[in-house]
Amino acid sequence: MSSEQLAAILYTSGTTGNEKGVMLTHENFISDAYQACDPLFLTVDETDIFYGLLPLHHSYAMTAVFLESIIHGSELLFSPKVLISRNITEMQNGHVTNILGIPLLYNKIREGVLKKVKERGKAAYVFISVMLSISLALRITLGINVGRKWFTSILKQIGFADTRLVICGGGPLSGKTVNFYAAMGITFLQGYGLTETAPIITLNPRKKIKPASVGIPFPLVELRIADPDLLGVGEIQVKGPNITQGYYKDENARKELFTEDGFLRTGDLGSLDHEGYVYIKGRAKNLIVTEGGKNVYPEQIEELILLHSEIEQAVVRMYVENKGTKSEQIEALIYCDPENHVPSERVHAIIDEVNRKLHPYERISRTTILTEAMEMTSTRKIKRGKIQRTFDRLKER
Length: 397
Description:
By secondary structure, the protein is of the alpha/beta class. Helix content is 33%, strand content 24%.
């Protein structure tokens, strides 16, 4: 068997409504898995217990969970679904050491912890908040990790008592969430990748984590920012042994995927700092350009909205306020679980709070509260290309 032979055809989740069969070879998978083994990123052995939340037909689960556990002879515990209370119990009973999850899991657990602390009163909330801040400062400035001692009981309650490494992929995660787990004593690595890259492109080094970044490129991955603007933001393009050959029976799509010199166009906008760390701004297709020529990245605003536990889903997009003048404004589509009984006044208060943190040209001028959830992928990302379908169904009622 040749390493260049086709190993799998994995269909993209189709967030823009156009699903394609990504052709991945044995070399794509294995090269990516072994690059993750670099001591700069992971230190794993046969004593570790991995926890997988996604099905194996997702490249993240295949490479980062399944193949990594085989390479190191580690145990592997699979969960049948993302159900937070069940996930916590499974992690507790399974004595999981390495958790490879998606933003939804980590955000919900963080929200649950803070909610319980708030229920104990203002004094308790202020005390825990101060302790978290001190713990994070000690870890960042002096490299002293006191979080595990200070927050032992909380770590046990959320299933992280035995956990030494947490990795997040499958979507953007707020730096606030990364810092929360770091303050609790957990090594939390955020990475970035695509199905087309088998999937990992970048990962934060264990000993030099930057919470707002998705890390540095893997050793064999060549990454560049194409046509950067004045702020250094442009399309992320990559080349390496983990890159797909193309799409199954779709030569036109394959040609669009690659540049003339062989780099894969990710469709994601990002920038690099002076140390080569990558910062994701959002999808190029989702970029909003204001009348004044300013760039607005919807995903960054959505992150701020989703930090509030009452909000289940949020999409930020452009709308035309005045058809005559073609004046463009920014709208937030919000969905809250009906069982939580979130009043509309609370939703608008959240948007007002978020707006205060934004530049004037980024602020949301219209909020639409949905009564039906928007369609999502297996990694819990909203299928933006199918949002209109939700509106059409609601209009028919």
